[in-house]
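Re: the request from the purification team.
They wanted to know what the chain is likely to look like in 3D before they choose a buffer screen. I agreed to run a prediction and write the result into the notebook, where they can find it.
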Amino acid sequence: MPSHLLRILLTSLLTALAIPAIADSTLSFPTQKRPATPHGHPVVLSPTSWQTSESALILCDFWDSHTSARAAHRVQQLAPRVAAVIAAARQSGVLIIHAPSDTMPFYQSHPARLRTLATPTAPDLPADLSGWLDRLNPSETAAGDPIDSSSGGSDDSREEARAWQAILKREGRLASRYPWKQQHPLVSINPDTDFISDRGTEIWNILRARSIRHVFIAGVHTNKCICGRSFGIRQLVRHGIDTVLLRDLTDALYNPADPPFVPHVHGTSLMVAHIERHLTGTALSSAVFGGTTPPLPEDSRIPVAVLTGENEYHTAESLAEFFDKDGAEFRPSWIAAPPDAPGDLLQTDALDHARVILVSMRRTALAPNAMSALRRAISRGAAVVGIRTASHAFALRPGTPIPPNHETWPDWDVSILGGNYQNHHANDAKVTVHAPDSDHPILAGLPRTPFASGGSLYLNSPLQPGTHTLLTASAAGIAKPEPVAWTFLTPSGAPVFCTSLGHTDDFANPPFRTLLRNALRWAATRQTTPAPR
């Protein structure tokens, strides 16, 4: 039988064969976005539920090689976790679409590729799905690229590049335009259920044929193919497909020698933040499919769990901008409640792994699971950094009833932060922070002359025994200075830094940003010691 007739027969058989049915189930996970507000782009978490029968996972350009040695090595490091997530997603009933661009000849006889070719053309196939899409909307165009990859994006040294070329030549990968030949071999392709394609039109047909409404996307690279391909985030979102990037299963093609001159892993984080601002939401694969994703070996950033939940000073916006611009040495994990359910914190798993807990909440009673996670983290010895309203983060105003099935922590300020919050001076009393008279590492780089602070001056005198005051401040017309920054120890002996600074205006003030950066670094690196009580 001629080969083309055999292929037609095979595709017809594959179309006729029923794909094994898997019981439908619900995937519930938090989605992270950064919508625009008048004060910036806060990290906002929303509970999300998708039916597995209506969901697909696209694995983008997860090739077996690359033009860049380091890019290829990062894929190799991610591959075991990607393979585990693909297997878990498939088992749950999520449709798997493998999209290793430029490798279709390798898969020309694979059942998953033939199944794709046999999929009928959707009646609503968009006419503009065939090419690359550089920008999705005016906001993304105005924002520009957060990382510069115009030089190619490879962060290989010259020696690494030369050695890699020799390897590619030895493996026979330089004979064609690209060195990749197939998807990374650690990621299996199920011949009975999966699909293979590198074209937006074909993938659209698959989604429509299987009634897919939601798509997870993973792979490489965030600033290139993940967003720009004909099946990438921009095209999916543009045409109404709910799309979520699995942000722990991706990488950027970025060289730290190019703007904004930050470590590679932080460059990836900046691109993820760009996606959350202008394109779509992201999620952790662990939150959706279980398991854990270890950081890349090169990722030495300090893990910080960031608890946000106050609307007076807009610190959710200020902290997001702070970590993007000044936080290259930190790996923040955001913990917050959805707007309609204060206290029902999402992504509390981060508390189990964080070295530092950064608290910026205000008068919030927590759901029991969130409070248990916080208490557990404090008990195991996590360091704490509190700013501004952290002093009354988990205490309600006198007489305010505690919401059903929620809990407060009335002595949080006293027992954990070492504070003594008793309200504040008048809002219009101008505050001056006195120059530091200590060489404490938290004060390194602060001016040796007084500087202004925004907002009111908190009343915290006297602090608890065992505190060490770092900065004091005075308010206009008030003679007695108040402590505004100090250190302490938790009952587990972990380091604590607390400051009543943190007004919106303070984040625009370089001394405060230096203070916060120093405090996070100090809290993460200071050795835990038993705390006398």
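For the purification team: The chain has two domains: 55-148+178-289, 305-525.
Please add any questions underneath this entry.
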